[in-house]
Here is the input.
Amino acid sequence: MKIQCEACQQEVELETNGPTDLKRAMPKGWRPRRIDGRVYNLCDVCGNIAHFCGGLSAYLQENLGLPKNVEFDRPEKDDFSFWTPRLPEYSEVKQRLKDKS
Here is the structure.
């Protein structure tokens, strides 16, 4: 089964063995994000929490064809996946922060 990031069109092959929850089958860092009432499958870069701070980023607005004023579900307060692709050396710090929650 293939899944594609709806913003950048990156495509990956998912390995599944029978029925599965799509969110759990997604590659590390990929997320389904609800934006303006619709769920978009976004890769680790496009679904990064930085695109949701202070409003939806211009990059996502343009690539998803969305108007300027859209509503979206706020990323989870304990969503530290945005560190993973860029700062893998912080995995120990990330774990300590999760343990505090």
